[in-house]
Specification:
The chain is mostly beta strands. It contains no helices and 17 strands. 0% of the residues lie in helices and 50% in strands.
Length: 205
Amino acid sequence: MLVPLKQAAEVETVLQRRVAVVGSSVLLVGPLNITHIHSVQWEHLNGTTFHTILEYERHNLTVHVPYIARVHLHASNGSLLLEDLRESDTGIYRVTVNREERESLMISLDVLKPVSHPQLWSSGLVAKASGEVLCEVAEGRADTFTWKKDGQMLPPDRSYRLSGSISVLYLRMAKKSDCGSYSCNASNGISWQETSLNITVAGDH
């Protein structure tokens, strides 16, 4: 006996990833395989709960706070234009097109400030004692810090990241060969900045 298999099923497309700068606009594109759009719902994951941005059905559009005047829906393809981006807009976005078919798409958006020039400083480095060189960015979240000495890349295990804005380079049992020019490069998905500092080791080498 044949059993009808056609049922309304929820299909969720693989997560896409986008990066944008604070203050700019971003176009979040809906599913590309839809020919006729009857309804669209955009949501933003805040913590563990999805909050509705807008709902569109049969030419009726409802935009929810705090997105009023910041979003525009392209009803022909379900895409969402989000303007005046804020860091709080970072998160997961879900668009559901045609509720009876439950065609969904997940998009990850990371809204970043450009990183500022790092500031470098060191503890007083003394021969045969351990010391540190610190790198800090005052603006923007740095996702990656890399260190160089005299233009040569230092291995990652020489440093560790305290936070999204500070990295610490360890100098264990400082010696004469540790003197030189140290550079710290701070970067994120939209920018990078680098600063150098000449380091000397005091005492008998």
